[in-house]
Amino acid sequence: MLIVHGDSRSWSWRAITQGNKRSMPIFYNVAPSKVKYQNEHYGNAIVSHLNKKWFNDETINNWKAALKEVGELEGWDLHSMLNRYLIISHTDCKGEFAKEVVNDVLI
């Protein structure tokens, strides 16, 4: 299970390039397209790493390719669930989202 969160500060850049290729991502507070195309937080984080020069270009290119790959994987997407169920409370939706993921994994 790979949890993709909208806050790039909580993202483990190295974990994605070493992850299990059979993982199904959980997109929590981020749309899969934002991950795939490295928009917003992800794009800003990559630019920040490029500017700091703490990692070589090959490593950063590996991250970008891994993010693109993860964004293309089938998984669970909280935003899609919000639109699908039209639940009044965002908090209720998060609980239903967690139940759906658990049920899918256990079945």
UniProtKB/TrEMBL annotation:
Tell me the ranges covered by the TIR domain, including all copies.
Answer: 19-85
Return the Gene3D superfamilies for the record: Toll/interleukin-1 receptor homology (TIR) domain
Task: Tell me the domain of life.
Answer: Eukaryota
Instruction: Indicate what this protein is called per its UniProt record.
Output: TIR domain-containing protein
**What is the scientific name of the source organism?**
Eucalyptus globulus
